[in-house]
Amino acid sequence: MTKATRESCRAVALIVCALVFSARTGHSAVSFPETLKDWSWLALQGTSHQVRDVRVSAGHLVLTLTSGSAEPVVAGDDVVGFFFSGAGSLEYTTDDPLELPVVAYNVKKNTGLTPTAEGKGLAIRDRFEEVLWLCGSAALPNLPPDAAGAALDARFAKHREKFGRVQASPLAHQFTAWRLNAPDQPFVRAEVSGGTEDLLYALDGARRKTESLYSLRKGDALPDRLYRTVLSSRPFGSDWRTPVFPTVMLTAVDFTLTASDGKDMALSVTETLAGGERPTSVVLLDLEETTFGRSELDPRHLRVKGVFDETGAPVAFDHAKNEIAIGLRTPLAPGATITLRFELEGDVLYRPEGDSYWMLGTDAWFPQPDLSGQYYTVHATVKVKKPFIPLMPGTTVRRVQEGDWNVLETRVEKPVQFMVVLAGKYAFEEATKDGVTVRVASYAMKNPRAIRKLMTLAQKIIAHDQWFLGPFPFPEFNVIEINDLGWGQAPPGVMFITSEAFNPIGDSTNELYSKGINERFAHEIAHQYWGHVVKMPSFEEQWLTESFAEMCAGIVIRDLRGKSDFASLQAVWKLRARDATAIAPIPLANRIRNHTKPSAAWTARTYLLYAKGPWLLNTVREKIGDRKFLDFLRSCQATLAWRFGTTEMVEKVLEAVTKEDWKPFFDADYWGTGMPE
Ligand SMILES: [Zn+2]
Predict the structure, then answer these.
(1) Which of 316-320, 337-341, 480-484 has the lowest mean pLDDT?
(2) Which end of the chain is more exposed for a tag (fewer CB within 10 A), N or C?
(3) How far is Cα 222 from Cα 536, in angstroms, rounded to an integer?
């Protein structure tokens, strides 16, 4: 097929999709529960047809139904796609220069497919035996009306069961939101199986504005679960440099959490949601359904007892696959706000390694939109059974005892992401200096001298950061001991340490922080600036938090510990940056996957964000000198204060400070896989 035909083919498929549905929306009034039910119970229409050499396409995907049988698929009364069984072939191409290196890496390391060079891009090809194609329109070209095909019911049922095990936002949520929020936007899903790989294709012009191809893989401990591995994902109707904002923004969270002395908790959370750029009838929010304790063999369940509007009336919802879909009775208009109350309960208080604390971390233990929709103030009350005491971000309103309970109430007045709650057999000391209260909490009897040492270290770093970055963003800062640092985001006004930090002899917290406890403290404290004052709108912009925090840690190490410590840190950055630079550009660090050797993917990701990113910033520093570089950092903090930052904005600030053109530098070494010497 020539390029021109392929493109017109694509265009036709998309236009059919968009037109059929936008026309239909005007006529029938559709409700959330009905639409959700229709898309949950997709069915074959009843007549199977023989097909031969039929092409169907969307975006950069072309499927050829070589020979077999196909039958229209209906959601309620609407034909929304087709199911095919027989022999066919798939071709997906990408020529997006940003993603090419990581597409090649992920396809090679995670599938039995071989990406092949195609013009300036890559093509991924496979054969298949079955396809479920959904785009809300009757996309069944060239169906011979009189040639009856094979009965497909059994195969269709089996296909639905299999793809129903994919651990991702359910198809019914996706299409219900598309149908009721943005039916004029292209929205296509193809579930392809029977070839070398099972593949899932999604073109989302409505919500995420991306076109993606995933391979599917069985879980290790739970083989009945299928997990997606992203092979390609590129902006659709958007671009890499501009963040996509969700249909709603979470602007305030007010919750009361009551924790038993076991693993159960009850949570009542009232959320204020602000309307995005178009009226929204269906809100999709992340909300964990099943989480795991120590392993996948210890499942914990979060249940939604009800969702209620301002008047206390129940609101229709569906909670599945770590997502809650909510059907609003009246669409939320752009700029308008709505408050919803969620009543939740579950056995989700997990104590790592049987230790005497639990944490509700940076995962979605309360309903929340994508990163760029998390911009909320917090008012929180947490009640835990004695002897546990609660800890969480925010300015303390009250810390009291009520009978058998220890109670903490706090407020976060600035908009934040990553709210957390912990409780345990903690003891803490606190002190206020330079307007900031530092609280060091540990959960086993610790040497008071070690606690005071950590307190002094935190205060010193905060004082230094205030000097070169501006006022510390929160009135209270908690240094909290936990069992295992893991790799969550830095919560507002909180940093975590492990018990090693209390040990005056061995103070190397882990391999990543080559300069030990000082670097870790400097890095985590810098996150209060890079992560909360300047926020990342997506994981593609994560260097704004990780690399900038690490660069600032380097400056603190240099100023408080000496030049030779900084020099050896720089050497580590450069070495590790070189190691990972070819695999992906920094913005796609989080996309690297390697199922045969997961540690290789982890290393590449961390080296890009914690070594190559700081190395780029250090290169800028060496080019423009220390004074101008500190001006640049301070200027970013001032210009982007309490906003979502982007690399484009940071580049503009740098150009304003230096009066130089930095585009070639960013294009080659940030957006590309280049590496400055
Ligand atoms: Zn970090």
Answers:
(1) 480-484
(2) C
(3) 33
How many CB atoms neighbour CB 48 within 10 A? 23
Per-residue pLDDT band for 146 (boundaries 50, 70, 90) equals low
Beta bridge partners of 308: 314, 341
Average pLDDT score over residue span 94-99: 97
CA of 486 to the centre of ligand 1 (A): 11
Q: Which DSSP symbol is given to 197?
A: S
Question: Is residue 506, in this structure, part of any structural domain at all?
Answer: no
207 and 132 in one domain?
yes
**Domain membership flag for residue 567:** yes
| Burial class of residue 314 (count of CB atoms within 10 Å of its CB; 0-12, 13-18, 19+) | exposed
Distance, CA 528 to ligand 1 centroid (Å)?
A: 10
Query: Is 480 a domain residue?
Result: no
Structural domain span for residue 51: 3-235
Residues in the chain: 677
Q: Is 321 exposed, middle or buried (0-12, 13-18, 19+ CB in 10 A)?
A: middle
CB 168 within 8 A of CB 189: no
Å from CA of 298 to ligand 1 middle: 28
CA of 490 to the centre of ligand 1 (A): 6
Residue 144's pLDDT is: 64
Mean pLDDT of 170-182: 96
In the reported structure, the alpha carbon of residue 525 is separated from the centroid of ligand 1 by a whole-number distance in angstroms of: 9
